Amino acid sequence: MNIVVADAAPIIFLAKLDQLALLRAVFPGPTLLPEVVQQELEQDTIPPEEQHRLRAFIGTCRVEPVPRPLFPSRALSVADRSVLTLAAKQKQAVVLSDDALVRRIAQAEGLAVSGTLGILIRARRAGLLSHSKAVHYLNDLIARHRFRISVELYQEALRQLAST
Fold it and tell me: What is the mean pLDDT of the chain?
């Protein structure tokens, strides 16, 4: 059973889709949140409906302080560094992040990675989402929720969603 150490973006995107349950279905192990990520998820700027979903989700997570994040870099936020630091302390952790740099560093540290697209693809492969529903969620993320991916990544995601 893998421990998921989550950054804010994938959780926020899944909350926008009202699909946070997919994270638990795909990764049934514990989900850890650095305190700084919890704070990002509780911002007042998040719409009330999403705040409710996020608070309920946070209540099922283990929130951990990360007093001295490792991985010093000007390109990484404190939250990114905290996610990497917390994940590095776990055995068999999965870093849940949509940030390309965070994912590259995590992989270089021998950690597994996933993100919002990975959750949708894994959920589709597990039979938790139909092909049409998974594609709908992907398109909804892009069209309505400012989910930014390259054309190549979009095409690869469509291919993977269709191949299951």
Answer: 93
